[in-house]
From TrEMBL:
NDH-1 shuttles electrons from NADH, via FMN and iron-sulfur (Fe-S) centers, to quinones in the respiratory chain. The immediate electron acceptor for the enzyme in this species is believed to be a menaquinone. Couples the redox reaction to proton translocation (for every two electrons transferred, four hydrogen ions are translocated across the cytoplasmic membrane), and thus conserves the redox energy in a proton gradient. Residues 114-406 form the NADH:quinone oxidoreductase/Mrp antiporter transmembrane domain. It comes from Sphingobacterium kyonggiense. It comes from the Bacteria. Keywords: Cell membrane, Membrane, NAD, Quinone, Translocase, Transmembrane, Transmembrane helix, Transport. The gene is nuoN. Its main location: membrane. NDH-1 is composed of 14 different subunits. Subunits NuoA, H, J, K, L, M, N constitute the membrane sector of the complex. This is NADH-quinone oxidoreductase subunit N.
Length: 462
């Protein structure tokens, strides 16, 4: 709980720093506060986990692992923010404050043990994102993305709340332990209200994680938001949403898996094909990443579809791999777009000759996202596929392998542009490479390769 309190206070402190024009202190204070929050999470690791505050939150290894990952990724994203927000708006403090509050909501979602806390965490996390998506007030595309995100987010929240209401009507409790006890005590006489609640919860959570056919907001919102906000949204927000998704289905709804597994299986298949085929047709790097995030959400659903002892470790590993690769990809896009002014694939032409270091980082990210061996993405995909194989979902495994091959094609397309395509005459010959970007990219590349070679460094956490 110390991390959540620290982040709340840190968000208020950052606002005051902005009020008193201490803009140069925003980044160091934010990073220092995040390190303190990270220290609280690590300190809590060996504390005996039990539900706190009338059963509202549970800081077990599951919650702490995902919280540590979310905080660590946020630190890397904030390092990229130096000079970035100043180019968009004079109100820099608001960016930091909203990101910190969104992270606070993510930590609540990771640790919830009561549906009330799940709702509060999702709303804190999402409302800050609605604002950040449209914070470029003079940009019509950003405004449109914010409006779409807000409408679809409010719509999905309605489904989520209605589902929670029906579960409460059937069980008389918001507590996860009490709801699980109800299922175990009534294995054959579960109320129809309960089944309807599960369906509505599935719809609400599928909207939040952006899986098909509930993904329509994802490409436009990711494309319209500032690149750094897209990075945070596609990593921290998505990872926390999946942690909340997995906690509910792995600890409470497992006894009823025969009811919801066929539904989720259909959603996974649709998600894989829609995400990969749509990404294959894109000419914009940013929209390709947006649609590919839909396909990655499908792979991450494997852990929920085939719940077992390795589900949590698998989704944590996949989340870490996806988060690191996405940060590398979007950080590179910021540099390229700043230099060329476009996010099309052609903007990466000739990058292998003019900026071999940056091109190598992008190559590692693309290989990891494609699931190529010796990268963290391969380990994540291997663990997801292993979960499905253990439950004998043979058809899904074959379809997933076909989609993985499609993913390799459009990710390697970026590599082809960097090393085999010639740069246009009107484009700059070299991309400027600030020190903060070098630090983030080098660290993310090392971690991506390290997890790929030695996965036990993260697999053994849960």
């Amino acid at each position: 709980m110390g991390a959540i309190i620290t982040l709340c206070l840190l968000g208020i402190l950052v606002l005051y720093l902005g009020l008193y024009k201490a803009k140069n202190a925003l980044l160091p204070v934010s990073v220092l506060g995040l390190l303190v929050a990270l220290g609280f999470e690590i300190y809590t690791w060996n504390v005996n986990p039990e539900p706190l505050y009338k059963g509202m939150v549970l800081f077990d290894h599951f919650a702490l692992s995902f919280s540590i990952l979310c905080i660590s990724l946020t630190i890397l994203i904030l390092f990229l923010s130096k000079e970035y927000f100043k180019a968009i708006s004079d109100n820099v403090a608001e960016y930091y404050c909203l990101i910190l509050f969104s992270l606070t909501g993510a930590l609540m979602v990771n640790a919830y043990h009561n549906f009330a806390m799940l709702f509060i965490g999702i709303e804190i996390m999402s409302v800050a994102m609605y604002i950040l998506t449209g914070i470029r007030r003079t940009d019509k595309i950003s405004n449109e993305a914010s409006l779409k995100y807000f409408i679809m987010g409010a719509f999905s929240t309605g489904f989520l709340l209605f589902g929670i209401t029906l579960l409460y009507g059937a069980t008389g409790s918001f507590d996860l332990s009490a709801i699980k006890l109800y299922i175990l005590d009534n294995p054959t006489t579960v109320s129809p209200l309960f089944y309807a609640g599960i369906l509505l919860l599935l719809v609400g959570l599928c909207f939040k994680v952006g899986v098909a056919p509930f993904h329509f907001w994802t490409p436009d919102v990711y494309d319209g938001a500032p690149i750094l906000i897209t990075t945070f949204m596609s990593t921290v927000v998505k990872i926390a949403s999946f942690a909340g998704f997995l906690r509910l289905f792995s600890t409470v709804l497992v006894p009823l898996n025969e009811f919801w597994t066929p539904i989720l299986l259909t959603v996974v298949i649709i998600t894989l094909f829609v995400g990969n085929i749509s990404a294959l047709m894109q000419t914009s790097f940013k929209r390709m990443m947006a649609y590919s995030s839909v396909s990655h959400a499908g792979y991450m659903l494997f852990a929920i579809l085939s719940i077992g002892p390795n589900s949590a470790a698998g989704i944590l590993t996949y989340s870490a791999a996806y988060g690191l690769a996405s940060i590398i990809a979007f950080a590179s896009l910021i540099l390229v777009k700043r230099n060329v002014g476009s996010d099309q694939f052609e903007s990466f032409n000739g990058l292998g000759k003019t900026n071999p270091g940056l091109a190598f980082a992008v190559t590692v990210a693309m290989l990891s996202l494609a699931g190529i061996p010796l990268t963290a993405g391969f380990i994540g995909k291997f663990m997801m596929f292993s979960n499905v194989m253990n439950d004998y979902h043979t058809v899904l495994l074959v379809l997933a392998a076909i989609n993985a091959a499609i993913g390799v094609f459009y990710y390697l397309r970026v590599v082809v542009h960097m090393y085999l395509m010639k740069k246009g005459e009107a484009e700059h010959t070299e991309v400027s490479f600030p020190a903060n970007f070098k630090f983030v990219l080098i660290l993310a590349v090392i971690l991506t390769i390290l997890i790929g070679i030695y996965p036990n460094c993260i697999v053994g956490l849960i």
